[in-house]
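Researcher: First entry.
Model:
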Amino acid sequence: MIAKGKTRAFFSASNRISPFRSSPERNAAGIRELNLDTNGIPRIDRILPGAAIPGGDVTIYGSGFVPRPNSRPLVRFGSTEASLLISAQDHLIARVPDGALGGTVSVETSRAKSQPFAFHLGVQIADNLHPVASPAVDVEGNIYVTYSGQRGQQVAVSLYKITANYTVKPFVTELMNPTGLALDREGYLYVSCRNDGTVHRVTSDGRSQLWVEGMGTATGLAFDTIGNLFVGDRSGTIFKISPTREIFVFATLEPSVAAYHLAFSPTGELFVTGPTTSSFDRVFRINQKGEISTFFRGLGRPQGLAFDRMGNLYVTASYAGRRGIVRIAPDGKAEQVLGGSGLVGLALLPGHRAILATSGALFSLDWDVEGLPLPR
């Protein structure tokens, strides 16, 4: 609602301003004053970023959030109350609570409650996992994710398969430190193992076989459109493996302290992230000749990445001090589009849905982002 008038609340300039008090202004007499809507109803105008998973921070913009000095509004995601980090008359910063459900956000003050505002909220579909890169999704909607473990640790289940109705099933047991995942057009799943530098091919019923070895510290995987498999050795090499298992050195990069993450753009260029000790890391672009350029610089610990149909790149990273997913347009313009801590990877699906991986769980998100077609 649009206020027809405003009232003024006056307080001394010597009073200390609470972090939950709205930002005052001085009038002509030098007295600090607080502008309030007379109807007292908080209004949400926009939320940035417009999507999140539990633990992510978002900024809510609007008006009427602090109807009187020293008051504190309530923010709810669905029916679950959020932690409020910063409160001002025209904006709030809130952290999405664990267990939040529903696609709306509301703000409630001592006077009134706002209209619900639409919001894209990720829902946890599996936990007790240990992914270190992006999940893989096949054409039937099955999701594949690792339990990677510490370097050299043999775990009971290496890979899990999560069906389209979110039933979690053990899939592969014998691999050590599975890391990167990629599906080919025939439906085989390829898995890199960073412990011994191998890549394994897994059938639809969970039988694995050694595909190639000698890949250094093998991490990220990606297929190009003609079936070549690219493997990122985090010590500095991108390998290209032909369908007949011939191995070539495709490009060399600076080493990563964690892993290389790979994704092909719709135009056939290979994009690579690899966290270093810097907080100003790069996204590399490698053309089909193996020539390397910097596509974007300014991310903190960039990891899993994926493209949408429009050619925008989505990277799990920190940007401007916040962790989440950053969208980078083809012209290099970047913005955070999802808030979430602990994110390591993502898969964008054609049906406006995303699968998000943190270091311990998977989330499903209905989103206004359309991914590339799945391999078939």
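Researcher: Second entry.
Model:
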Amino acid sequence: MSKMALKKGDVVVVKKGKDKGKTGKILMIFPETNRIIVGDCVEVMGREGFPQADLIFADPPFNIGYKYDLYEDRKKYDEYYAWTEKWMGACVKVLKPTGTFWVAIGDDYAAEVRIIGRGLELHLRNWVIWHYTFGQNTKRKFARSHTHLFYWTKDPKSFTFNDMAVRIASARQTTYNDRRADPKGKIPDDVWSFSRVCGTFNERVDWHPCQMPERVLERIIKVSSNSGDLVVDPFSGSGTTCAVAARLGRRYLGIDLSEQYVEESRTRLDDTIAGRRPTTDIAENPELLRASRRERLGAYRSAGRADLPAKPTLFGEVPERG
């Protein structure tokens, strides 16, 4: 006799864990994808039947005092370290053997996250630096204008890397007219230049204190997953990962503690899928970045050095003509 399928609302007896023997209602049947869930990511990913992820992108609280509506972003060092070990471990457990794991983190705990990743036997492919313009203003130190992006795979050889989906024009193509240039462009370097999401950008939301640019997630999702793959974000926040995953034809699962953030993210997702929410074109564009350099190089070749406009040296002085 076959067992009857369980459904939401059914009352069942818990068979394991600290609540073993207790009864409770089924709130969710996995695998359910293309949704954002309210809950603690460690608890949710630990539920029986949570689907295996092809790609996990995590942008956790940095423990620097951000004002979230529920989470307290000011833990003691040991507490934050232990919590990071716990949620990263939970991610690895639901990651497919061929899966990819990305983590965004600030300077304060980048070294710790790297060590934890090694302890979880993840294979580091790149330690990417996301350099953003419009950095934080400082008075007694250099302005901080970057975030660390750790790129791990579970298997050192078997993983998804769609290089053709993220190639960009090389300097050999755009600047030097070098015949040796690969016509397919080049794989981006491990320093990415994308602006932060400013208040004037189309994609900016006003209900979350921090927000990843969609262009950063575009590159990560395109290179590390395929159409129909499952992308999981354990700290969904403003919903950027899920919005980009949906737009690129991936399945997604987001998790967040805040009911408000989840509800707002669902609205953002609906608007994104319906085409009502435009993105901001802040992607790396070597062609535009090198335009002025090409202009000066052309002037040099056609008119000679003496006719070039004055340009400051490394130390800010304008060299004499002649």
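Model: Note on the second entry: Residues 77-93 form the longest helix (17 residues).
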